[in-house]
Amino acid sequence: MESQEDRNPAPDLDALLMACLSNNTEAIKAAEAALKRMTGSPALIPQLLLRATNSHSPEVRQLSAVLLRKAVSKHWTKLTDMDRLHMQCVLLDQLVSEPHHSVRRSLGDLVGVVARFAVAKGQWPGLLEFLGRCSASTDSGHREVALALLGSLAEHVAGHLAEHISSLNQVVAAGLKDTAVEVRRAAVRVMEPLAALVADRGSAEVEAFHGLVAALLEVASSAYSSRSDDETLVQCLQLLVELCESSAPLLGKHLPAVVGLAMTVGTDNRAELPTREAALEVLHWVARFKPKQLGRNKDLVRQVVSALCTMAGEAAPPDLDPDDEGTLPPAKLAAQALDAVALYLPSQTIFPGVLSFANEAMSSQQGPHREAALTCLAVICEGCAEPLRKRLKELIPLLLAGLRDPDAAVRGAAAFALGMAAEYLQPDVVDYYKEVLPLLFPLMTEGNADVCERTCYALDTFCEALEGSEIVPYLEQLVSGLGAVLTVTGPAVQELALSALASVVAAARKDFEPYLAPILPVLHHFLSCTSPAMIPCRCRATETMGLLFEGLGGDCAQLRSLAPAVADFGLQVVVRASK
């Protein structure tokens, strides 16, 4: 009688692997499903091993190695001793003969998984000896294999490497000084799992790791000086970010050098933007995770602040796509880094340098410099609130001058700075509302979307802190200006304008009643919007209506006409939330 297996012959493994590598979505899904069923049996392991080591296609070899990792994790204990030994020998042979980096890396990861089972039971005594031979080889490919393998072992069997840390450090140190760039990159990669291993050890191991950090900085400096090896430089910078996060003092005495490198690369206008961003990320992380150690070096902090303030005035490269949200211009990168530095480091070290820069830059003939002055003041409002609050008499004139500036970008920066000041420098800053509000009103309707958006933010934060009697003289200008913004701008600005209107309503309470007529039709429009893009505006309009009911009372006939629209939206939200 014909068996079930005869009626359903085993799928062709080679065909399935090729299907996974095709561009046909349906074929990929079908092949993945078939392979998933096949990996339920240890019988697939020898077939995958054969293809990982003998296929003519590097893509097939790599995919087979990846699939083997999953299969070995499931079925290692079901393999015979001979099959295990065969796999160990074949994998090490293939590691040193494999010509493609991507395949070697996948094979190294596979060796790490096998080691997780074998090393713990003393079933792979020759593994570290193999690593040592490769690291001393005259073939740079073999030296790279040694480091890739070390990284995989540090990830999978870290506990069994602890007694060998000293010799492993020597392997990595030699790799960082290797003449072959691929070997140096492999050494940088292995430092992250090695750092995790060292962090759990004693001070002697941490001290020894500091030597690797010094060598790492040399690799990074050399890559930076070459102007042609951003890949290695970014790799080093990303590793430094990881080292910053460790609770162990892995950077040690080299922290000033780390900050110096990050500052130099990050503020270099000749470097590529992604590279500069990676460097400034290091500054951010050092400030966040090592604030005491960095804060003690006051001169270095002042240099960082000065460099970031200068960078904040740097023009965007001409080839930068303004619609590319993934790539920020230098000025924004600098502002983000300065914000982080101000948040985590002592304000008395940050504030004087920024204020000095702002005073000088505001007298510059170049608009970007004046814009930078105001942006830098804005981003330190949260971190340096206390000293700024004490120097408002010096700060406010700079911001008011920015609102009067002929350059729209400077006016926008001034409005943003005033919004930040109103948010973080309460209650003192509100005393200046009589000087601030009249200068903000014209900016709402000047036709520049960016300036309008920032002005609405400033109005929102200022009006939120005002009392009824303080805001009443400005209600007509506020209502007419915000009403105009709500009819001519896009959803992003409209949401901010509605938020500002809500703050005005909350402050005015009953005094807002004379201005209901022009505003209610606008609110009704937003309450009736059904487009997903308009939901944030609809929420803000609902908030504003709620504040109107609270301030004027439910007896107001004009308000009652909008009650059904508000209730309808509320019910829709409840229904969505319950699904």
TrEMBL record:
Keywords: Cytoplasm, Nucleus, Protein transport, Repeat, Transport. GO terms for cellular component: cytoplasm. Its main location: cytoplasm. It is found in: Cytoplasm; Nucleus. Residues 31-97 form the Importin N-terminal domain. The keyword Phosphoprotein does not apply. One of its GO terms (molecular function) is small GTPase binding. This is Importin N-terminal domain-containing protein. It comes from Volvox africanus.
